[in-house]
Amino acid sequence: MFQLFKSNRTKYFGFRGDKLHTLVTILASVSFTLFGYDQGVMSSMLTLPEFNHYFPEIDAMEDSSKSTLQGFTVAIYEIGCMSGALFAMFFGDRFGRRKMIWMGSVIMIIGAVLEAAAYGLPQLIVGRVVCGLGNGFNTATVPSWLSECARPERRGILNMISAALNILGVMTSYWIGFGFYFVDNSANWRFPMAFQCVFAIIMLLFIMEMPESPRWLIREGHIEEAIDTFAHLEDTTNDDPEIIAKVEEIQALIKVEGPGIPVKKMFTFGKHRHFHRAMLACFTQVMQQICGINLITYYASTIFEQYLGMTPLNSRILAACNGTEYFFAACVSIFVIERVGRRLLMIICACGQAVTMLILFVTAYLADKKDNSDAAIGAAVFLFVFNTFFAIGWLGIPWLYPAEISGLEIRAAVNGLSTAFIRRYG
């Protein structure tokens, strides 16, 4: 069912070692780019006249009382994401990493088609829920898959690259939204919605040709396949003593952790402190969300246009520039993550975000209530500054942290639960 291509071609397209690691990282990054694109795509839609023509029920620019339903339509996507993450928590280890990502990609394509073809609000809402469900599958699974395939010393950098490409998705959605702003028909919102399918199709076509997580294979008893996967990832032979030793080490670790249902074990205490690890993972994700980043990501154009008094064109240009700067700031984390460390980087950037948000509160108030143009400029600048602190310290680490601190036996469950938490508070 899951193997779309059956041929005699070389395994993993003939890639081994560093090249295979690069291929795994690229495909994981496509998933994160899709995640970012989904986050940003609604930003430029909400103030489009053509979009509001089809969905007048959520045209908050015409009637502010409709903002509640508009917020519901935007946020319902997160309910789908949370449901997908919970599914991954309970069933992720049953299907394996690749199959979960494959299924998530199929579901996302269905959701994107429903959204792009919508002629009424109910269909749009259903499409967003379905799309979110597929994204929940992927975001709960891809970090584990990438971490379990990567060399330990490279996990931090590889996850930061994927996180930066998540913002590449946000940036892409802003610029596509800006480009289609000049189209005078429903294609100006249908095409950006449908463009989600491009990333999902890439995942769909290639994920089953990638190596499965060798650690998951060992846990499921597929020892020979795990040895072969490690050999390809390390560009060596199946009888390499280091590969055999690595497999035996993981087997010993699984034996120490003992049998049990991963979801139940996640809530146990004892010497392995599974519950403590799970809560650290969950609340790191929660803290990432309640800082307010999604408010900026989803409503960037709306904030610039409705609250800072900019024209529709200028608000879209500034939102796209904001997304671009956000991407370049995210790239900084790639070079500092291993030098500074996880905790210290999060602490420094959390302090920067707190100060910036306080300044944003004051300047946005003056711009909106006192009609102060200088304050509006200041608010726009500090939106950029806030995104910079977030991108460096809080964008990628909360996705890396759960996979690093949880044991193999509960890793899929912890990632599913922590991703559900991030959706609950997003």
UniProtKB/TrEMBL annotation:
Main location, first listed in the record: membrane
Gene Ontology terms: cellular component: membrane
Membrane disposition: Multi-pass membrane protein
Major facilitator superfamily (MFS) profile domain span: 24-426
InterPro entries: MFS_dom, MFS_sugar_transport-like, MFS_Sugar_Transporters, MFS_trans_sf, Sugar/inositol_transpt, Sugar_transporter_CS
Assigned keywords, A-Z: Membrane, Transmembrane, Transmembrane helix, Transport
SUPFAM superfamilies: MFS general substrate transporter (SSF103473)
Compartment(s): Membrane
Keyword DNA-binding: no
Keyword Kinase found: no
Pfam families hit by this protein: Sugar_tr
GO molecular function: carbohydrate:proton symporter activity
Transmembrane annotation, as ranges: 20-37, 69-91, 100-119, 125-146, 158-183, 189-208, 278-297, 317-337, 344-367, 379-401
The organism's place on the tree of life at top rank: Eukaryota
Protein name, entry field: Unnamed protein product
Origin species: Candida boidinii
Lineage: Eukaryota, Fungi, Dikarya, Ascomycota, Saccharomycotina
